[in-house]
Amino acid sequence: MSQFGSEVTSLALPLAAIIVLDASTFEVAALAVVDWLPFFVLSLPPGV
Fold first, then answer.
1. Is residue 6 part of a domain?
2. Under the phi-then-psi rule, with left for phi > 0, alpha for psi from -120 to 50, and beta for the rest, what region is 24?
């Protein structure tokens, strides 16, 4: 169930940014980068 919630969030967050905030393509891409940045920063040093 947690995976389902994560997938809904990954779809709903960009859609909400586009519809509610009238975000541009660059802003939606920046939102995706900010979403994945902690994963890259925290997983690369230990070599996971």
1. yes
2. beta
